[in-house]
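Bump. Still looking for Acid ceramidase structure tokens.
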Amino acid sequence: MTGAPSPAGKGSEGRRRRRMAAGWGRALLPPAALLVLAPLVLAPDPYGEDCKTKTYPPSGPTFKGNVPTYIINLDLPPSKRWDELMRDKKTELKTVVQNIKDIANTFFPSGKIVDIVDHKVSHLTETLPYPFNEELQGIANSSGVPLGEIVIFNIFYEIFTVCTSIVAEDKTGKLYHARNLDFGLFLGWDVKNNSWTLTRELKPTVVNLDFQRNNKTVFRSTNFAGYIGMVSGVKPDLFTLTMNERFSLDGGYVGIFEWFLGRRDGMWMGFLTRAVLENATSYQDAKDKLAKTRLLAPAYFILGGKNSGEGCVITRSRTAALDIWDLDIKKGTWYVLETNYDRWKPPLILDNRRTPAMKCLNQTTQENISLPTIYDVLSTKPVLNKLTVCTTLMEVYNGHTETYLRECPDPCSPW
Ligand SMILES: *[C@@H]1O[C@H](CO)[C@@H](O)[C@H](O)[C@H]1NC(C)=O
Ligand SMILES: *[C@@H]1O[C@H](CO)[C@@H](O)[C@H](O)[C@H]1NC(C)=O
Ligand SMILES: *[C@@H]1O[C@H](CO)[C@@H](O)[C@H](O)[C@H]1NC(C)=O
Ligand SMILES: *[C@@H]1O[C@H](CO)[C@@H](O)[C@H](O)[C@H]1NC(C)=O
Ligand SMILES: *[C@@H]1O[C@H](CO)[C@@H](O)[C@H](O)[C@H]1NC(C)=O
Ligand SMILES: *[C@@H]1O[C@H](CO)[C@@H](O)[C@H](O)[C@H]1NC(C)=O
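Sorry for the wait, here they are.
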């Protein structure tokens, strides 16, 4: 392959790349697919743009709406906690689950995979720790979606989440935490209107959750209805937390296969973040748990506290923290940022959201950092891309959270 892709993906190169991406969707092998596609694109990102300014409060074509808030009452038995949410969202959940099944059936036309999921995976639920096992059973019961499919749906979130997360500190020592949630990589490209089918179908399932005990907020999160792990959350006046997928070929998916085969000593990543948000008692306690608990797959945890200097990116292998990148105001590190690549390695040329995000944060400067200016950064292509489902802005003080559904009008990077 020689020659640069034409701008905005309008030329034949752009079309070819999109066709390939759609084809690879059937293979369900995102990291491998990325590696194959990587050498095709050697030119600067054709979808890049100047750093956005004054995009907040959200409006215009990149803003697709607000999301509703539901209370999850932790005083209820786990099997009842999700009933109210499921009453409202079961139709949307079924649409997404059906889409995932269609993809599986395209790849394995015999229908065997779905059959295995419906009849075998549900038994695995019993081996999950409390309260997750009972919550999943409750969701299956109240949504009418078979238990095995609910479990697979939860596993999908653990695997297919590509994101951009930022923790930043302003000149007064105030901390901000924000993220774009990008989801649906390689899961069905819709050529008719240039969008990822799953990304589009997920938007109506996005909800803000307020987890309460004794009628008081324990933590808040932004979730997909039907998923019981946590990818973004805030524990008021203690810490903020987001999780990003870490593609790693060194045993990345081995743990998940081992789990299917019966090995149970690692924890699902989203269950760890949930347990930390629910039960960790301080920034340090959260940091220790996120760094040390054995996991089923690698991940990045991005953690913010409430005091100056409390912010870090924890790069995890299944067994250990490989790196902890802390804020260091004295040395000029006033923000930490994670996309889906180890910070000591260059990001994939094909998927470089890190450099544009850093460029925009650097341009903003610490003097002017705030939730609105961070929203600007997260609204700049390709940090904003076709996979972006929503943007969440959080402040630890009082557990402040804002979530906005997003749209990325053409020309826009597919990821
Ligand atoms: C399943 O849901 C029905 C109502 O939809 C409820 O009556 C029943 O108690 C639930 N069963 C379990 C095990 O939660
Ligand atoms: C995209 O096209 C599909 C049908 O191919 C349609 O159902 C969907 O509403 C369209 N989405 C948008 C955002 O236009
Ligand atoms: C929570 O509030 C509801 C009504 O607002 C009340 O009926 C219930 O008893 C309260 N629960 C607790 C544990 O305080
Ligand atoms: C948090 O701790 C409580 C009390 O020990 C326990 O019942 C609950 O299951 C824990 N939550 C999670 C998600 O592990
Ligand atoms: C942003 O600033 C940091 C710290 O000065 C520097 O290391 C980094 O290379 C800059 N990145 C970009 C993309 O400008
Ligand atoms: C910071 O914000 C002020 C006030 O809005 C503006 O005058 C200034 O140019 C900004 N600085 C940078 C580096 O953007």
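The chain is about 35% helix and 25% strand.

Edit: fixed formatting.
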